[in-house]
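## retry 2 of 3
previous attempt timed out at serialization; input unchanged, resubmitting
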Amino acid sequence: MPAIFAGMMHLQRFILGAACGAALGAASPSAACDLALLLAVDVSGSVDKNEYRIQMEGLAEGLRDPVVSDALVRGQAALALVQWTGTSRQDLNIPWTTVTTPAELEALAERISEQPRIWIEYSTAIGEALTFAADVFDDAPACKRRVVDISGDGRSNEGVEPLEVHSYLRSLAITVNALVIRGDDDSLPTYFADNVILGGNAFVMTAENYDEYPDRMRRKLRRETERPISLLRSDRPVPAAYQD
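## retry succeeded, writing output
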């Protein structure tokens, strides 16, 4: 009888423990954050003082867009800001900041619009910028999606090539989208499509010049937060739909 009684008690404890574990597991929330979005701003030598200011103010206004702000707050998104240019010249201006209220998002937008420029006359190292951005995600909150939003007005001309970083980014489940300021380089959007963007919902958004940057950034943020689209494959030219 003592052995049978002990066995019954052991079984009861096992069942009770399993039930409690299941209850705790059911009560444990999944990652509340929908999106970890890293904003990577080009400050290379091709970007003048006015164009830099357009980028920062355009980013801030894009975040204030009602559709974008609602999606970010509702998804408890986390955002960070990086300035990048040549090799070894990348800086985390604003670390990961979670936005759970409109007031928090407005405060972040204001910080972005007021960020001073760090570098002025250096090359364009897109691969180095992507590597730095990937490492920033080491400190990111646990979010369902990880996205690098990189803007640029030229091709990589220094450091590791962007394609060489793709396997590293892919291993970290990071998507890369791009906003390209075309300028005089008609094939620049195709270059970014072939060499920079990455992920199942990755895309290129094109601005013909910096005057179009704020509007294109707003559209880009809307796509990233509300309307994922199909992968823009690197073996095809950039469709007109991605250049609006």
